[in-house]
Design goal:
Layout (H helix, E strand, L loop, with lengths): L4 H4 L5 H10 L1 E5 L5 H11 L3 E5 L24 H12 L4 E5 L5 H8 L4 E4 L4 H14 L3 E7 L2 E7 L8 H4 L3 H6 L10 H19 L8 E6 L4 E6 L1
Parallel strand pairs: 1-2, 1-4, 2-3, 4-5
Antiparallel strand pairs: 5-6, 6-7, 7-8
Length: 231
């Protein structure tokens, strides 16, 4: 148990919590800027099975923030490269790869195999699909989004009176008509926001703390102001 001694020593986790982590199955949709810290910290914590969904290849412009990858992997599949890196970090973790874009045809069948779904994507269409599918299947959905120096995190489809992505952004048609948001971002923004998402996943698995169910956490890294709003 030496690998996990530091977190097992926490009374909120202990041996029982570590066993819950070992048995957990978490699907990460997107293994880019947000997906990198999420996947690394969940693998490091000993989450038993990680599923990685992404249809993209590594590019040189990714490396400013997507710390799962190296220059030698440019042009290669992100999920396959990420799996290699994660199993190098923790060989006890089972990593399943899905090198395609999630769509309505695959979403239900894939999501039902996992306990928790984590949003590390970058588009509204996928977020509505994740929220609707998780709501139908009663699967917790950990949401995160970033732009520039700002980010936000919530937990949907979980707990009494569970909220969904549609409670945050009810006008799907209006959202999809909007021009794509700017992709400008400093590398530490996904590092911080992705780490908060990973913490929400660990909370849900182990049962410590108070998940962001029905709440929205935001941060502005220029001022370090953060807020929690009720949805």
């Amino acid at each position: 148990m030496n690998r996990y001694d530091r977190q097992i020593s926490l009374p909120e986790i202990g041996v029982a919590g570590q066993e819950k982590l070992r048995q957990a199955k978490v699907l990460i949709v997107g293994v880019g800027g947000l997906g990198s810290p999420i996947a690394l910290y969940l693998a490091g914590a000993g989450v038993g099975t990680l599923g990685l969904v992404d249809d993209d290849n590594v590019s040189i412009s990714n490396l400013q923030r997507q710390v799962l990858y190296t220059e030698a992997e440019v042009g290669q599949s992100k999920p396959l490269c990420a799996a290699h890196r994660l199993q190098g970090l923790n060989s006890e973790v089972n990593v399943e790869t899905y090198p395609f874009r999630l769509d309505p045809q695959h979403a239900g069948e894939l999501i039902k195999r996992y306990d928790i779904v984590v949003d590390a994507c970058d588009n509204f269409t996928t977020r509505y699909l994740l929220s609707d599918t998780c709501h139908a299947l009663h699967k917790p959905y950990v949401y995160g989004a970033i732009q520039g120096f700002e980010g936000q995190v919530s937990v949907f489809c979980h707990g009494e009176g569970a909220k969904t992505y549609r409670d945050l952004y009810p006008d799907k048609a209006g959202m999809l008509r909007m021009p794509p948001p700017s992709r400008a971002v400093i590398g530490v923004t996904p590092a911080i926001v992705g780490s908060v998402e990973a913490n929400e996943v660990l909370k849900l698995i182990v049962g410590y703390g108070e998940p962001l169910s029905g709440k929205l956490w935001t941060i502005d890294l220029r001022t370090m102001q953060s807020y929690i709003f009720s949805l």
